[in-house]
Amino acid sequence: MRTLLIAGNWKMNPSTRSEAVALAEAVKAGVGPAADVHVVLCPPAVFLGAVDSVLEGSPIGLGGQNMHWEPAGAYTGELSGAMLVDVGCTHTILGHSERRHGLGETDSQVNAKLKAALAARLIPIVCLGETQEQRLREQTEAVLTTQLSGSLAGITPEEMAGTVLAYEPVWAIGTGLTATPDQAQSAQAFIRGWLAQQFGEATAARVVVQYGGSVKPENAAELLACPDIDGALVGGASLKANDFLAIVGAARDVTTRGG
Ligand code: PEP
Description:
Elements: E1 2-3, E2 5-9, H1 17-31, E3 38-42, H2 48-55, E4 61-64, H3 81-86, E5 91-94, H4 97-103, H5 107-119, E6 123-128, H6 132-136, H7 140-151, H8 157-161, E7 164-167, H9 181-199, H10 201-204, E8 209-212, H11 217-224, E9 231-234, H12 241-252, E10 256-257
Parallel strand pairs: 2-3, 2-9, 3-4, 4-5, 5-6, 6-7, 7-8, 8-9
Antiparallel strand pairs: 1-10
Helix pairs in contact: 1-2, 1-12, 5-7, 7-9, 11-12
Residues 9, 168, 173-174, 212-215, 233-237 line the site of phosphoenolpyruvate.
């Protein structure tokens, strides 16, 4: 069975530590003590320590938005997996499209980061997805295959089962456009089919595959009702506690799925 995971990617928001603390406090109060749905907050790195203090005693996890593949060294501006763990992280986002397309991050870099995150005992959230142009050219499955095989190369079935994937069509991120439930389910089912081929059916059935791309309270329930959508990676709507909590509420109506 897969427990749904709702993760908030705050990106480069909010501007101040006190706003980050207030947002985390509101989410903590709204989520409460139950862990029927997994919830993770991914604030900017400078606020991780403050948000970790707020989340103490709550089932909510803490995630980085990125990390480096090396454990230490001369990498100005970077963070290691061990640093994320030390500040309280349980998860880290890897290969977000804003890094792949905005900063030129490659599948092989994502793969190196994935191995480093697993070695640091972080739960990686590996993002995948096609651009609008690729979708219009009917290249979605080819793009996903390239990203999956490059980003997940060389990991064991057990490591795969402990890795979260997030299907995030680039054209739906931060644009207000959302994949229809049919479009999302079709891509998610394709991803699970690929996982079954590479790692076996039993492993594929254990992998949490989130959807991301303008998820909001109005569309969360219909997306989360799809059998291969095991949660959401939420950007914009995660910055408003009430909106994020409404999405968590929609996941609570589903809770677990798969076998
Ligand atoms: C994201 O940042 O991963 C994302 C999906 O953003 P948004 O929800 O704003 O589209």
